[in-house]
Amino acid sequence: MHIVGKRLLVVKCDPAQLPKMYSDVIDRRMKPVGRVMDVFGNVSAPYAAIFCRTPGKALVGEMLFIK
């Protein structure tokens, strides 16, 4: 996972379970992180762009989930 600017996260997705556009993203404590804005990259190794609700909300290396 990478942080771009203050509010955009780029995360690697599981190719078997791609997130839907504009799905809510939560962390392991069930707290809202942001929303999926784009899914891009190779079909076998996709990435998702997540727009965070607040700057610096998620840490690099933390697991995120779709609600």
Model description:
This protein has 67 residues and is an all-beta fold. It has a single domain (2-55), classed as Thrombin, subunit H, CATH 2.40.10.230. It is built from no helices and six strands. The protein has strands at residues 2-4, 8-12, 24-27, 32-41, 46-52, 64-66. The chain has a six-stranded antiparallel beta sheet with strand order 1-2-5-4-3-6, with no helix packed on it. The two termini are 19 Å apart.
SSE blueprint and pairings:
Layout: E1 2-4, E2 8-12, E3 24-27, E4 32-41, E5 46-52, E6 64-66
Antiparallel strand pairs: 1-2, 2-5, 3-4, 3-6, 4-5
Task: Summarize it.
With about 70 residues, this protein is an all-beta fold. About 0% of the residues lie in helices and about 50% in strands.
In angstroms, what is the radius of gyration?
11 Å
From N to C, what is the helix and strand string? EEEEEE
Total helix count? 0
Would you report the number of β strands?
A: 6
